[in-house]
Amino acid sequence: MALSPRDISAKTFKKGLWGYKREEVDFFLKQLAQGVDDLRREMDHIRLELAESEKRIGKYREDNESVKETLELAREKAELIVAKGRQTAKSMVERAEEEAQSIMEGYQREIMRRKSILYEITDIAKGYRKKFERMIQHSLRNMDDFEESMESRKAEKVTSSIAKDERIEDPVAESEWAKATTNFRIRSQE
Length: 190
What we know:
This protein has helices spanning 5-10, 22-163, 174-189. With 190 residues, it is an all-alpha fold. It has one domain. The longest helix is centred in the middle third of the chain and has 142 residues, at 22-163.
């Protein structure tokens, strides 16, 4: 049975032959009642604080659950974002590699095309060089033939003029003519 401060204050004792001093017992009982009353008030206060603390703990638990759910959602969202980022990066790398491959193939085709043009131009240049060499050789032969023809005509002229006893009047002296002919032949052979 729990005692209240009122129970303690209302308690009476029977007097015995040698009994206690009533004032001391009353004084002690009042002090005891006051102490029990203080303890009960403190206990009520503690119970209120405990109830409030339990409410706060309940709220914190709810908040904690909410935070856990939020963190879980954030973690899942982050995983999705990372996965999507990886997929996007992979896709970008694949596209870049395809574009690089395409560009390289384009360059290789262009190189092959230009090599083909270069070979064609080289072949054409060789053909023109051969034609030019033949043309020069033909011209040299024509010039040699012309010189021989000129020498032959001069010789005929000289022969015919000797036969007529005529003197040849050549503006170029025969020795100078021979030097010029020799120099021309040397230059054409170079």
